[in-house]
Amino acid sequence: MSPVPNTLQSCEPAARRVSLEGFVSWWAGSRDAGRQRRRVLVVLLLLVCVAVAVVGVPRLRLYGHDIFVSLDGGWRVLNGQRPGVDFYAQMGPANYLLHAAGLWLADNDARGLGYGSTLATALIGFWAFFLLRPRMKPAPLFVACLFLALLAAAPFPLGTHPRQAAFSMKHNRYGFALTGMVLLESFLPADSRNRRLQFRGGFSTGLACALLLFLKISFGLVAVTIAVVSAPLRSSARIRLAGMAAGFAAFTAPMMAYLRFDLPALLREYRLLAGVKGGGLSVLAVAERLYRDRFEIGLVVLLATLVSLLPGIPIRRGITLLVAVAMAALGGTLLLLTNSQGYGLPLLGSAALLLLNEATTTVPDGAAPPHIAPLLAMGLLAVGIPMCLDAAGIAAAIEDKVVRSEPGYRIEEPHLASIEFVDCPTTFFESGCVPNDNGANFVRYTEEGIALVEARGRPGESVRGMGMSNPFSYATLRPPSHGGAVNLSRTNVSEAVVPPKQLLIGDVALILMPKYPDSERQTLDTILKRYPEVLSEEYSPVAESANWILYRRVR
Fold first, then answer.
1. Are 244 and 203 in contact (CB under 8 A)?
2. CA 206 to mean position of chain CA atoms
3. How far apart are CA 188 and CA 182, in angstroms?
4. Helix axes 372-403, 294-308, angle to 10 degrees
5. Residue 454: other Cβ atoms inside 10 A
6. How far is C-alpha 342 from the chain's CA centre?
């Protein structure tokens, strides 16, 4: 009696093969499918920009006091001051010029910060589209542009829960998105015969590096290093280098003209910041951070190794891909250690996009090798998780604007009415907020300080609060002081490095000294310990409320 074949067992490998081949075939797509994907991508990028405009300034659930760093800096710029030259800015001039542009468009209303966010998201999203469209296959291009746009757009700080909406550390998101673009342009394959395309790519990288140097110096240094390391690994690099020089000059020249070429002032600030933040950098700290993120890094390293071993990938190209991943891991780790950020390595997402594109280029026309499917799945996993988190953050912020499940509190000044402060979250996954930095407490304390200034201040007197941020200059629309800092925190002041008084306080006429506890009171104690004469000789108390003491400069 002949054996009966097991039909189910014989069909399983075939079904698995068809499924994997179908996925690879769909991913690689046809030329017509590529055109359709690009059209859909443009629509989705526009929708992301619309979503950012709808959110505007999100309902602030975390780090509410941080918003006044952006408002104070933008207000100073609108009053003719130059970041890093006329005041201690901590961030680069480009950051505050963006906020100032938004405030100007909104006629000095705080909702202008949302305009600035929309402009930045549109710039990054469509810059990525036009830069990467000739260099990437349609499917990886689709994912890359959305990844970078959502990275820039999401209204919550990197390393926090997507529902913890804030207008805090936006510069980090812009910095990672632009640095990711530099990484992709530097390591994507380029047509050595198309000199115009090479020049455009170099121009984009030079422009992005210059923008990053004036946005936040740490991102600029990482981007420049990536661009420099990639140069010897590229063929026909001269035309690209010429483009990089042109792009760098195109942004640097007008920015330095705006700063009246006061490079020594910028270098002085950068040296101070390096002294404050450099204490946390060491070989041991980097090694510990790399170990902590070993699973996130390991996935992309494994993907790079497997892609470099694919048939048709030359050894030199495989080494280049591994270098790109190493730079993404190390550069992202260094940025993470110098940011106020708990976790997250967005540069690894850009490296995974590079590898996705590389794997896609190995798929022959009309074929769909099933062994490519696991590589595509690994790359999409590395990119898709942060993308989904960013998209969830935007959706949560829109929902919060519409539903308002928890009460929000507003400062009474009309130009601040668009900002809502929500009390701190209390769940395990949404902890980390200090109650006096946000919500009802922050609004109550701020309004009390405003009332004290309005009652006892003279017309035209500048004012600053000695908390982490200074709400009072912009809140009262008083002219800002010359000198002084927009931010007093452990990110720009430490016990080892305390900047000069002129940078911290300047010539401000009125000082509001808080009596209530908040997250940065230790920084204030460090400043007063270094400069005790400020409150004993240079300023004298003139009024007091339950939570503030008002000081006036002794004339």
1. yes
2. 19
3. 10
4. 140
5. 13
6. 14
- Alpha carbon separation from 279 to 139, 232, 338 (Å, rounded): 43, 33, 10
In sign, the C-alpha dihedral spanning 258, 260, 266, 269 is negative
For a pLDDT cut of 90, what percent of the chain falls above it? 75
DSSP state of 511: E
Read off the tokens for 27.
């991913």
| Beta strands at 510-514 and 463-465: parallel, antiparallel or unpaired | parallel
| Mean pLDDT over the full length of the chain | 90
Please check the confidence at residue 468 and state whether its pLDDT lies above 60: yes
Q: What is the pLDDT of residues 81-132, one digit of tens each?
A: 999 999 999 899 999 999 999 999 999 999 999 999 999 999 999 999 999 9
List CB contacts of 341: < 8 A, sequence separation 6 or more: 157, 158, 159, 169, 172
Residue 199 and residue 237: Cα distance in Å, rounded?
9
- Report phi then psi at 396, rounded to 5: -65, -40
CB 187 within 8 A of CB 320: yes
Q: Which residues face 277 on adjacent strands? A: none
- Round to whole Å and give the CA distance between 384 and 313: 25
Q: Residue 112's pLDDT is what?
A: 96
Q: Is residue 513 within 8 Å of 545, Cβ to Cβ? A: no
